[in-house]
UniProtKB/TrEMBL annotation:
Name this protein carries in UniProt: ABC transporter ATP-binding protein
Biased composition range(s): Pro residues: 246-260
Family matches, as InterPro entries: AAA+_ATPase, ABC_transporter-like_ATP-bd, ABC_transporter-like_CS, ABC_transpr_LolD-like, MacB-like_ATP-bd, P-loop_NTPase
PANTHER family for this protein: IMPORT ATP-BINDING PROTEIN (PTHR24220)
Any coiled-coil regions, as ranges: none
Annotated spans, Disordered: 150-180, 229-283
Domain ABC transporter: 1-251
Gene3D superfamilies named among the record's database cross-references: P-loop containing nucleotide triphosphate hydrolases (3.40.50.300)
Biased composition (Low complexity): 261-270
Record key words, sorted: ATP-binding, Nucleotide-binding, Transport
GO molecular function: ATP binding
Gly residues composition bias: residue spans: 158-170
Amino acid sequence: MAGVSQRYGDVTALADADLVIRRGELLAIVGPSGSGKSTLLNIMGTLSRPSGGTVRIDGHDVEDLSDRELSALRAGTIGFVFQQFHLSPGVTALDSVSDGLLYGGARRAERRAAAERALRRVGLGDRLRHEPHQLSGGEKQRVAIARAVLGGPSPASGTGGEGGGGGGEGPKLLLADEPTGALDSRSGAAVLELLHDLHRAGTTVVIITHDRDIAASLPREVRLRDGHIEHDARPPGGAPSRHAAPAPPGALPPSAPSPGAPSASSAPAPQDAPHRASAGGVR
Ligand SMILES: Nc1ncnc2c1ncn2[C@@H]1O[C@H](COP(=O)(O)OP(=O)(O)OP(=O)(O)O)[C@@H](O)[C@H]1O
Ligand SMILES: [Mg+2]
């Protein structure tokens, strides 16, 4: 993204942000409450269109895409774990997660098998048929995480047998807003390990966190303050993650964001557009 700003009335939530995230990176976004972290993540995930600046994702200039095209891009590319996650009342954990695969076209039995693996992976194997009101806050968050990572490049199977087994392609990009914020340290560590597995399998992973230890353990840390990127610590030598793949034609350039690109439109945010991460909070 280049020169990206987000204003809400007279509040500038994000100011002139330049950020290039390469394929296969794993990074933390940190900063005080209200510094613009969630705003940045929502823009990165094309859930909201910025007031100004250019956002390119997977080679697409977000400004050029209709809300429908953005929904399709999200459905095929991006998994979200929201800070405010909402699970639909009356829907079991298993259904909530397997519904996230509806876009992939997999059969119901395959979706449910993949959902069950993902739920077991986050430690909810004995909560498959619990509805939201029967789950703790941390358990609900883990359902949302299972849903977001489902179909990732086989991290959920644990057996390497996932390929096409209902998981679809999985997210190329996983955006997680305080994924461990509501968890005890043991569940938090399990979730973090899951995110590392996804990264190892090739997913680009962006994690907002207040946890200094988590942030320090990741290869890159972007720090926000008052809507500005005040610090961006890259790996020594500026090398991309060892998992970074070459960018396809039309993808973001490796270093400088494209200058002089047209500014993004201020069209209404596609907040109610359907996408695979709706368990995360925008249903
Ligand atoms: N829809 C909105 N309307 C008005 N102001 C908003 C809106 N969303 C965010 N803001 C403001 O923009 C600023 C940045 O908000 P944002 O949610 O990005 O912060 P954050 O860094 O994620 O904070 P936290 O750590 O508390 O989640 C805050 O001052 C917030 O009050
Ligand atoms: Mg936030």
